[in-house]
Amino acid sequence: MSNPLAIETQDVRRIYKIRGPKTKGEPTTRVALDGVDLQVKRGELFGLLGPNGAGKTTLIKILATLLLPSSGTARVDGFDVVRDTEEVKRRISMVSGGETSGYGLLTVEESLWMFARFYGLENKVAKDRIAAMAQIMGLEERMRAKISDLSTGLRQKMNFIRGFVTDPNVVFLDEPTLGLDVQAARDVRGFVRQWMDDHPDRTLLLTTHYMAEADEMCDRLAIIDSGKLLVCDTPANLKRSLQTEAVFNLKVAPLGAKPKDGDLLEAVPGVSRVNVADVNGHTELALTLRAEDALPEVLAYLTRRGSSLIALEKREPTLEDVFIKVTGRRLDQAADAEKAAE
Amino acid sequence: MAALEKDIIRSQERVKKLHGFALFWAVVWARAYPRIIGALRQKSWLFFETVFPLMGVIGYIYVYRSVNAPQEYIGFVVLGGAMTAFWLNVLWSMASQLYWDKEDGNLEIYVLCPAPMMAILIGMAIGGMLMSATRAAVIIIVCSLAFGVVYNVGSIPLLIAVFLLTMTALYGMGMMFASVFLASGREAWHLANLMQEPIYLVSGFYFPVKALGALVATAASIVPLTLGMDGMRQLLFPSEQATGLMPVELEVVLLILLGVLFIGGAYFALRKLEQIGRREGRLIERRR
To answer: Which of A23, A64, A29, A28 is nearest to A205 (CA)?
Structure first.
């Protein structure tokens, strides 16, 4: 317990071989993680925020001993994930979104008991803890149901019980609310936050591509894109870093033909960043200005382009704005780009 | 009560966990459990696994009867038919199991948790063996009563030893194949299909294996069922001693060696599998 860091990585790289036939000149490898340095303190709920394909799951798998880094070092709860695999395994657990583990003919209770035994829980301890956790997760009435009969939400609650019932020091949650309905996702988030409050010495690393989830849950978070950690701070500090600027959402009539480079909206004096999306016959602009007084210039520009203002909203910066600032694109655009690159 | 249950989870007191052999044993039974309970829970399984296999065995019995083969041959078929239960279980529920587990996302959890993988495989084997024994017992009891098979057991301890050694070596082979099937990258059922029928032939499930010729029969002895069935036939039907492949005592020694070979092989294959899985980032994880 003397080490204040629960998770520590130094210059972790992971390179995958690209399988299958390739044409001449096509790359044979793909860099999934590129020199990741990360420090997570004991007791933190730390988030890794990034689009699909950014390297979040690769990093979590390295930390959970499922994957070797190509280079660099990683330690979890004070143990090296490459050399001290067994020590790390005893101290961690992991729950992934969309998990379908277990055997369909077993009941929820039996399935959880089986996994608890795999972690070395004594029989009675396992049964007591499973019953207690089922009650907290609101699953107590389905404990005798076969797991093949569970809905996605209930199945994920079961997976959560599996992950937490073994009393881990460090928990990895990989996109834990993926595919869940609003209520189930809220229950899961509530449980995680409560567990962290009850166990201030435990650590939780969460990966997500849901901005609101990261904002709501995490003590600190890092934004990861294309295998690199770009920024790392508390959600409040990250958003505060944008507060010297003014953030507006504009809904405007469709812009005319794209002008030459010198006459883009980004070139208007005072415009820091802009993101354009065509939605249902109009255009939405996410606009970050260096100062509010640049707004008239922007409106004049829109008029020149043959557009007109439909609605304007000034808003507080969000993690989405932080993401745009550090990557130059929106999270959904980044996900599309990663998908195309794979 | 509710508050008390929540306190169990909210308590900051650490949970004591099993280590070493205690953990190994707990994992063996935890993994055997779904095999046993799962099978018992499928009512249709009990019917299909016991009644249908009888038909195939009875078919062979009528073949032997129609050609007026000696009565011992009916006994050979009954024993071979009973042992098919174990062979099919090894092929489809041991050798292919890690592949199914990967597809279901269980393998990743097995590798992630501190449970020894050998304990997980042994648990699978024990669970599968117990359930296959049900099918084997039904075949032996029903066919023996219906067709008047007479057993003249010379040495019951030796018979039990041959059976247990055969099971150990056979399930050891299944444990080793579990990693080999997974690492081969092919769909597991293709490999299982590939092996199922040829082994029926070369191991002599429905005839004395020596009929294949000493060379083929000896080569087929790498499959523990070949030696096991030959040994048990010699012990159950004394007239078979003349047509046995080799002395039972030698078969016992060879079965011990095969058991050591396959279980040792399973251990190393699992370690290799984990290494490849961690190095290449595949094999273990489910394709989403």
So the answer is: A64
